[in-house]
Amino acid sequence: MTKEQKLPEPSYEFLSSLLCYSACGPCTVTCGFCKAQVEAQDEHDSITYYEIDGRTWIDDCPCNGPSRYEQWILCNRETILSFLGAKAFNELRDAKQFVRDVKQAGYKPQLIRDLDELD
Fold this sequence. Notes:
The structure is a single chain. With 119 residues, the chain is an alpha+beta fold.
């Protein structure tokens, strides 16, 4: 996507997965993608903004900065899913080995008894 092309708005699903904040006035929040600033004039005024990759994005900022991340995730979802599957498999393998080691040591707390039901 070239710089001249306007990014689509980030989806509701994507934005709802990000850390969301609200700032009450008087204050100024700067978009970390396009440097636009929004001011909340008084305590009855607020600004909703999100944080992604250490950057702030102001709700409804026309730059639609988070869209780049959403598009990247969607375009690379097979690789991401493969990575998460491999990571989960390794975590499960390590957890099962830990349970075996604890059982072999003769320690059998309630947690281990509960885990027996998973085998």
